[in-house]
Amino acid sequence: MSLPGRVFRAGVMPLLETLLGRRNTVRLGRAISMEARLDAANDMAHNGELMVQERVLGAIPSDRKIVALDVGANKGEWTRSLLAKAGARPIEVHLFEPASATYGELIGLMREDSGRTRLVNEALSEKKGTAAFFCDGRRAGNEFTPRRRCRCGIH
């Protein structure tokens, strides 16, 4: 290992971990690495998902029914964006969310679009059954709490 690498590991890392904690030090490192690689933020305004929605909607005749899948729907932002872009077009979105607490929140968030959505409290896979997965706290993917083992049905 180079001299700067040894100095960083011996001096800077312990200091950062003391000040920020191990988890936040890792997050800081990831943020610096992503910034250095010019990675886009993981949100629809920057990662290309909105453009894909627009292109797909533009390629399908406006009188043809659209059926879409939102796998790992979380809070349904992707679906709400697609429904808004689709306007009055015939569309049905199937939202798959295996984390029960997140699914419960999703039900309330998608209530006004219930005629155009189908919520499924299961994961999506190539075969039916049950499987263990890890979720991060009460609302998987949104809060940074210790990981716990969860079980879910697979659709």
Report what the structure shows.
- The protein has 155 residues and is an alpha/beta fold.
- The protein has 2 domains: 3-36, no CATH class; 44-125, Rossmann fold.
- It has 6 helices and 5 strands.
- It has helices spanning 3-20, 22-36, 44-47, 49-59, 77-86, 100-109; strands at 66-71, 91-96, 117-120, 129-136, 147-154.
- Strands 1-2-3 form a 3-stranded parallel β-sheet, covered by helices on one side. The protein has a two-stranded antiparallel ribbon with strand order 4-5.
- Strand 1, helix 5 (77-86) and strand 2 (91-96) form a beta-alpha-beta unit.
- Helix 1 (3-20) packs across helix 2 and helix 4 (49-59) packs parallel to helix 5.
- The protein is elongated, with a radius of gyration of 20 Å.
- 14% of the residues are buried.
- Residues 139-148 have low confidence and may be disordered.
CATH superfamily of the largest domain: Vaccinia Virus protein VP39
What is the gyration radius calculated from CA atoms? 20 Å
Shape: elongated
Specify the helix fraction band: 40-55%
Number of domains: 2
- Through-space gap between termini: 48 Å
Strand order of the largest sheet: 1-2-3
Fraction of residues in β-strands: 15-25%
CATH fold-type name of the largest domain: Rossmann fold
**CATH class descriptor name of the largest domain:** Alpha Beta
Structural class: alpha/beta
CATH architectural category of the largest domain: 3-Layer(aba) Sandwich
Main sheet attributes: strand count, strand direction, barrel closure? 3 strands, parallel
Let me know the number of strands.
5
Helix segment tally? 6
Low-confidence runs: 139-148
The averaged pLDDT comes out at 82
Order of helices and strands: HHHHEHEHEEE
